[in-house]
Design a protein that fits this description.
Rossmann fold, 5-stranded mixed beta sheet, 24 strands, alpha+beta, Dna Ligase, domain 1, 4-stranded parallel beta sheet
């Protein structure tokens, strides 16, 4: 019996590989045939080899809520998610448009605030956002770029339409798993990847290095670029070290840097070396104890002064969090119309903002149908999935919404698309829900979208939560060549 012989999708749910009749979707025949040439037993062996390879490579993450502070191997399913070249081109166009609008919004809210003055977005919603930083008003980002790296989460609804679920514009993580998944897939199934004609993801580190160099206050040849990490106890430390190594850059902690005369310097055995670009993976709350948290041991005193003077570029720029606030998200289509005079190319999920009286009343009356999210939480935390909740859980969230309406938004539960996924327990392929995080780079030379991205999968049957911290895993994402 071949791998997909017993596979059946879920009724009323879009499957990423097969249509409702069980046929490979257009353009996927070659890849599906290559995958299906194995029996379930043979594929199970490949899956075991892939897991061992990732274990040996130390592909891990940490869960903050785990009291033991233990690192975990990032679960991976060797069965890929496929996306056609034509569909990917449409996503690239839509992501580029969205990033341009979000970039202009950030320049505006830290500048003239035209969109607020004209009432296109409620002023108090933006200025009251947790991650809006009023101290940055009037500041311009060195190099003219604020969103150097983004990870915009997408889902696909039952009609097959991609929709933006949320914007990650501060310190988006996960791209190292994209690159490592491809390495392991090619090692375990080399012929399958070749036969399927898949676009490359291996260029990402070089592209990221080029993006960072493009915003340096000096020429690329003269620039010193570093990756700033909070240290080995951070949940994404594997990624910090991976990216620094693959880009050929120094991985530094706060103690390795200092500021003198509004310039950033790196301590070396040969004496101080000027730093021009910092790819920071430290949350801005800890970035500079002179400006943010006074008790931070993870930041560099004075680095914000150096940034404000244009002497160092910080990627991503401080203050971006106001643009990926889950309540501000509801107004991104309006940003596209206001700044670009265009209609949005990407759909997004209908969102009720509890800050608005009518929206709040509707949400409270329909809690059992809604997914309620705290605007300042991530990783699947601070969330109520109404259709799967108890009456007590809904009552608790009702009280939270009434007490702090600005802190909550709600969306209807969308049947996320499924993708064939290996189930080790049963030794067969089963449908599991997925989302997609494409990674985009934005430098002086424009935007570039990595042809692939992180497909996250809910490994538990019936689950909608794909976050690694909540038991989710990942898949390689194969974008077909034209």
């Amino acid at each position: 019996m071949n791998l997909f012989d017993s596979y059946r999708g879920l009724p009323g749910v879009w499957d990423e590989l097969f249509d409702g009749e069980g046929r490979p979707r257009p353009g996927f025949g070659r890849a599906v045939d290559a995958l299906d040439s194995r029996t379930a037993l043979e594929f199970g062996r490949c899956q075991t080899l892939a897991e061992r390879a990732l274990l040996n490579q130390g592909v891990t993450f940490s869960v903050y809520n785990d009291a033991r502070g233990t690192e975990k191997i990032f679960p991976v399913c060797l069965l890929p998610r496929l996306i056609s070249a034509v569909e990917w081109w449409k996503l690239e166009e839509g992501l580029g448009q969205r990033l341009r609008a979000l970039s202009m919004f950030l320049d505006d809210v830290y500048g003239e605030q035209r969109i607020l003055a004209e009432g296109r977005i409620p002023r108090e919603l933006v200025l009251g956002a947790k991650h809006y930083l009023p101290i940055l008003r009037g500041s311009a980002a060195p190099g003219g770029v604020r969103i150097h790296v983004s990870g915009i989460d997408l889902i696909r609804d039952p009609s097959g339409t991609f929709r933006v679920l949320e914007d990650n514009l501060r310190t988006p993580s996960g791209v190292s798993y994209v690159l490592e998944n491809r390495v392991v897939t090619k090692r375990v199934m080399p012929r399958t990847v070749d036969v399927a004609r898949v676009q490359r993801v291996e260029d990402y580190p070089a592209r990221l290095a080029e993006t960072l160099a493009s915003v340096s206050p000096v020429s690329a040849e003269e620039s010193t670029i570093v990756v700033l990490t909070p240290g080995p106890y951070n949940s994404a430390y594997f990624e910090h070290s991976f990216l620094a190594r693959t880009m050929g850059l120094e991985l530094v902690e706060a103690a390795d840097l200092f500021v003198d005369e509004d310039r950033v310097w790196l301590r070396t055995t040969y004496g101080p070396r000027r730093v021009h670009v910092v790819y920071r993976r430290t949350d801005e709350a800890f970035l500079d104890p002179e400006v943010f948290r006074k008790d931070s041991m993870l930041g560099v005193p004075g680095i914000m002064r150096a940034w404000a003077k244009g002497n160092v570029a910080l990627a991503n720029a401080p203050g971006n969090g106001v643009a990926d606030d889950k309540a501000v998200y509801a107004y991104v289509p309006e940003m596209v119309r206001f700044y670009l005079a265009e209609e949005p190319l990407l759909e997004q999920v209908q969102t009720w903002v509890c800050f608005r009286d009518d929206d709040r009343q509707y949400v409270l009356e329909h809690l059992a149908e809604m997914v309620v999210k705290a605007v300042d939480e991530a990783g699947g935390y601070g969330m109520l999935i109404g259709p799967q909740s108890s009456a007590a859980e809904r009552d608790a969230f009702r009280a939270k919404i009434q007490a702090e309406p600005r802190r909550y938004v709600a969306q209807r539960l969308i049947e996320l698309s499924t993708c064939p996924t290996w189930d080790k327990g049963s030794g067969r392929v089963v449908p599991r829900r997925v989302d997609l995080r494409p990674y985009s780079l934005f430098g002086k030379n424009g935007a570039w979208v990595l042809p692939g991205g992180l497909t996250r999968v809910a490994l538990v049957e019936g689950s909608y939560v794909v976050n690694s911290s909540q038991g989710g895993g990942s898949k390689d994402t194969w974008v077909m060549k034209p």
